[in-house]
Amino acid sequence: MGNMVQFNEEIAQMPVIRPRSLNDFLLDLGIAVSPGHARIILVLLAMVMVALSIYFISSAVPEPPVLGDDIPRKGEVIPKNRSL
């Protein structure tokens, strides 16, 4: 077994590069004090954005017609009857 090569060097591990996140951005701005607070702020912002998008999408859907109701809706024009 004299032909086996052995290395007694310690190989330093390469550092893992972590990309910057929104948590780091909030911490750098001073808005959040700790990463836990930054996560809470991001979750709340995400919930507000989802709620606003649902509100805007639902407000864009037109109202369904109502049978038997003679009240004109917003933007509706009723033509005047012409006598024959």
Give a quick rundown of the structure.
With about 80 residues, the chain is mainly alpha-helical. It has a domain at about 20-60.
What does this 3D model show about the protein?
This protein is mainly alpha-helical. It has a domain at 22-59. Helices cover 40% and strands 0% of the residues. The chain is built from two helices and no strands. It has helices spanning 22-29, 35-60. Helix 1 crosses helix 2 (35-60). The longest helix is centred in the middle third of the chain and has 26 residues, at 35-60.
Observed structural traits:
single chain; 84 residues; mainly alpha; 40% helix
Distance between the termini: 116 Å
Strand coverage percent? under 5%
Number of helices: 2
Mean pLDDT: 84
Helix/strand order, N-terminal first: HH
Radius of gyration: 33 Å
Shape descriptor: elongated
Q: How would a crystallographer describe the biggest sheet?
A: none
Low-confidence residue ranges: none
Quickly give the structural class: mainly alpha
DSSP strand tally:
0
The residue fraction in helices comes out at 40-55%
Tell me the layout of helices and strands.
Elements: H1 22-29, H2 35-60
